Amino acid sequence: MKVSEVMVTEVACCSPQTSLQDIAMLMWNNDCGAIPLVDEQEHPVGIITDRDICMGAALQHKPLWELRGEDISSHRELYCCGPDDSIKEALQLMETHEIRRLPVINQYSQLCGMVSMGDIVSFTGAESARKAGDKKISSKETMEFLRHISAHHPSHKATATL
């Protein structure tokens, strides 16, 4: 099964200069937990999650309207996949880098979709038979991925005073 068969193609995105307040509203209005940051040519340059917004504001001691997407995402590497990649390849990339969402890029490296852990889970096992005919993702592979990505990882503690 390919990423194109499970990915979301209508993706809300914004520029790296967008405020975290506006990114949070994009998430609210589009019922999603991650927003890709794209440049003028629609190339993904970062991604902001709802957790990034919370932690960014807390650790930098600033209100959301004073922080930009690039303030939070610029220190992290961005991982993407292609629509013709296999689900197994996408799962391996997510597992290796301990991420739950991947921007999907076309042959011009432009954003063309997103694939998330939830998208993949929805096509796993019995559920997939109803959605994709005989195409399905191995329940065992998905559970191994979920187990790894959901496990507690070494702490990235920052000094914070409350």
Automatic annotation (TrEMBL):
<dbReference type="InterPro" id="IPR000644">
    <property type="entry name" value="CBS_dom"/>
</dbReference>
<feature type="domain" description="CBS">
    <location>
        <begin position="72"/>
        <end position="130"/>
    </location>
</feature>
<dbReference type="InterPro" id="IPR046342">
    <property type="entry name" value="CBS_dom_sf"/>
</dbReference>
<keyword id="KW-0129">CBS domain</keyword>
<dbReference type="InterPro" id="IPR051257">
    <property type="entry name" value="Diverse_CBS-Domain"/>
</dbReference>
<dbReference type="Pfam" id="PF00571">
    <property type="entry name" value="CBS"/>
</dbReference>
<feature type="domain" description="CBS">
    <location>
        <begin position="7"/>
        <end position="64"/>
    </location>
</feature>
<protein>
    <submittedName>
        <fullName>CBS domain-containing protein</fullName>
    </submittedName>
</protein>
